[in-house]
Amino acid sequence: MSILVLPGDGIGPEVTAQAVKALRSVAANGPQFEMAEAAIGDAGLHQAGDPLPEATLEAARRADAILFGAAGTYESDLLPPEKRGGHGLLRLRKALDLFANFRPVYAFPELIGASTLRREVIEGVDLVVLRELTGDIYFGTPRGVERDASGQRIGTNTMRYTEGEIRRVAHAGFRAARQRRHKLCSVDKANVLETMALWREVVTEVGRDYPDVELTHLYVDAASMHLIRRPRDFDVIVTGNIFGDILSDAAAMLTGSIGMLPSASLGEGGRGLYEPVHGSAPDIAGQDKANPLASILSAAMMLRHSLGQEEAARAVEAAVREVLAEGYRTPDIMEPGARSVGTEAMGDAVAAA
Ligand code: NAI
Ligand code: MG
């Protein structure tokens, strides 16, 4: 089994190093993997003049699974796409056709006190946001900034989905719901956007194949409210690329911190890309402050979904629970009386557990 590690930028390398430690600890107890590392993001730009160097893409195509950190910085975000670190990740997801991005949102009982939300709202929260990842306004054309006849600049992006793209992610949503509590909520903006009217129609059609799954629909604005007000009612949420991006950051706060949210990006085959939901966090990079648990939990998802190592996945998840129960806390989830640790020490504690 081969794992390609893409640390990327900012806190990416810091948190990914902790996930690699956890994987080494797992390997010491059984499953063997080969791990190789490659450059992506601003790091790819510096090393090879491209946020997704050709060698990185080739290595990604050969690997069984990819563990990714974060790509991009505020500086490169403002450059044209070919010089933008974050664009390397978008291109990688697209090149590997990783269209289904699963973002589990689980309120760890040990962390309820660290959330800014009320205990009675978040206790028992266990949902998955399934974000479509290779279509929508992120990729639709026409796009760009031009000038009209009067010389005024116009920025354009296009929200675009084919019915095939909607259908395959809808199937993924229904299948996921079947393995959980049999509830799927599709989130769109069908009242205003043609693309989303088609979304609702196709999801409804696909739903006929899954009579055992309860399908509901919400507009994204209302969904963002319900997600905060009654998060326990949700099981699987399926939505488009941009709505999923925004809703899952909001949902992160149900867990206490975005530093707790892992994700898996899957295609039709077994290969997947696993990454924390957060970005490169330039505000805390290089300070040993980042929470590595999202990255470590992403490695657990990788063991489960791409490497067929369910037992090892559970061991990693149990280790995370254990260190939380022992009171280890990075600053983002700090509570009075807990044991304040940095990125490295948290990683060491999980690897030891
Ligand atoms: P961000 O997720 O990097 O940070 C948002 C806030 O959450 C910051 O205050 C940060 O300190 C905090 N945070 C994030 N991860 C944390 C962790 N593990 N532990 C503790 N605190 C954490 O989002 P932001 O600031 O919007 O973007 C920063 C850069 O990352 C930008 O250049 C952006 O383009 C890029 N980005 C990359 C992503 C990716 O590679 N998948 C996803 C989102 C943003
Ligand atoms: Mg985001």
Automatic annotation (TrEMBL):
Q: How is the cofactor bound?
A: Binds 1 Mg(2+) or Mn(2+) ion per subunit.
What is the protein name given in its UniProt record? 3-isopropylmalate dehydrogenase
On assembly, the entry states: Homodimer.
Which residues are substrate-binding?
Answer: R93, R103, R131, D221
Q: Which organism was this protein described from?
A: Belnapia mucosa
Residues in Isopropylmalate dehydrogenase-like domain copies: 2-350
**InterPro entries linked:** IsoCit/isopropylmalate_DH_CS (IPR019818), IsoPropMal-DH-like_dom (IPR024084), Isopropylmalate_DH (IPR004429)
- Enzyme class, one word? oxidoreductase
Site (Important for catalysis) at Y138, K189
Report the gene name.
leuB
> Its Gene Ontology molecular function terms?
3-isopropylmalate dehydrogenase activity
